[in-house]
Amino acid sequence: MALTAKEAGLVGCTVCGLLAPVAKSEGEQHCERCGEKLHTRHPDSIQRTWALLIAAIIFYIPANLMPITLTTALGNTQGDTIMEGVIYFMYHGEWPIGLVIFIASIFVPICKIAAMIYLLISVQRQSDQQRLNRAKIYRIVELVGRWSMIDIFVVTIMVALVQLGFLASVQAGSGAIFFCAVVIITMFAAESFDPRLIWDKQSNDD
Question: Is 0.85 topped by the overall pTM?
Answer without folding.
Answer: no
